[in-house]
Amino acid sequence: MDTHNNTTPSIHHTTTPSTLHIENDLNHKNLDDDGRPKRTGTWFSASAHIITAVIGSGVLSLAWAIAQLGWIAGPAVLMTFSFITYFTSTLLADAYRAPDPVTGKRNYTYMDVVQASLGGRKVQLCGIAQYVNLVGVTIGYTITASISIGAVKKSNCYHTHGHEADCKQSDYPYMILFAVIQIVLSQIPNFHNLSWLSILAAVMSFSYSLIGLGLSIAKVAEPGHARTRLTGTEVGVDVSGSEKVWRTFQAIGDIAFAYAFSTVLIEIQDTLKSYPAENKAMKRASLVGILTTTLFYVLCGCVGYAAFGNDAPGNFLTGFGFYEPFWLIDFANICIAIHLVGAYQVFCQPIFGFVEMKCNQRWPESKFITTEHAVNVPFHGEYNVNMFRLVWRTLYVMLTALVAMIFPFFNSFLGLIGAGSFYPLTVYFPIEMYLARAKIPRFSFTWVWLKILTWTCLVVSLVAAAGSVQGLVTDLKKYQPFKTE
């Protein structure tokens, strides 16, 4: 016993430095090179985030978009947008770390990336473009989700009372329901906690896209064929000359919206572990995500156009080109709603993070903003509640729902968002940052063709925005509250 008592202290003293060393090693292993908790994301989880962000409500409008553009221009525009989006996403992925894309300092947001590569007033312009777009997307998703939830009730009405029945209804209650769900989910602290929601949302997006594709194929196989043309809708038969022009512009905006994920690319990349290098993993994720979504887009858009022809509805699962089997259409619309619950969070979390970071910097002494209150949640354990986060995020969700109620127009709104984000965020800033980082000489071949691409995309975005604004004005003139179709 005496021997044991005498040796215990000596053992304790000799192991203290090594114990501290082990603890420091463990702490170091749990932190990344920037001192933040170790990131665990992979190219697979990043692909799920991208698919969640990209295969959204955009896929639902593609049959209508192809109908406006026709068999030649429609697929060509789709493929062009997919190529440009992938090319610029690889440029953006290299800008996550600066100055070196592998060993440089991390940049956590799109604005940080622009600050590191360009600086000056362009940072503020980027912030305005990004966050206005993110707000627009969350409003658009509120509209789409409510239409899909309402479509379940409407399809049951048609099934019960016949296709000639008056099944008009208001989508407002479903917007309120969607907002309530988002208020709860918005209390998830940050992007790193959203992988499970994105994977679920990606599965839902595949489900309803496949259902829509399958129903379109079945409709094509039926006797009789829908009227299609190489140039899409016919002037004098389907639309007037001016309507053809405006709808063509709006269709381009809808396709641009279908590829809008550059706004959250940096935030997605910031979830990746550092080996393999984040830019390498992000490029792989972008390739997988864009190839997957483009395949779905071409299939859904082209087969949807073949099924409905020039009369393709704006939303081919809720515009009721389909009536039966009603249970399958109900399931598809439920999948859309679940998917958009997750997609809304993917797009609003960067807004939440930006506002909360700025408020913490501006008022570091405010207990309302900085204090976390530990609360025990059943089946979850301890959860930290921040009163500022609770109040501000709730108000944000309520505001987006209110705007969605005022402008509940699916195609026009998506086209406007797509037009507003495509040029600045998908094309202009990634290319300008690449030119600055790589020090490309002015008027060299690379500089010239990248500038030509930039200016061409600006023109495309402007005409798409013009078509979408005209569509919104037309929709507002026709709109009757509480009797949305």
TrEMBL record:
* Protein's cellular compartments: Cell membrane
Compositionally biased intervals (Low complexity): 1-21
Tell me the Gene Ontology biological-process terms attached to this UniProt entry.
amino acid transport; phytochelatin biosynthetic process; response to metal ion
Lineage, top-rank taxon, reads Eukaryota
> Which parts of this chain are annotated as the region Disordered?
1-34
All copies of the Peptidase C83 domain together span 243-480
The entry sums up its family as follows: Belongs to the amino acid/polyamine transporter 2 family. Amino acid/auxin permease (AAAP) (TC 2.A.18.2) subfamily.
This chain belongs to which protein, by name? Peptidase C83 domain-containing protein
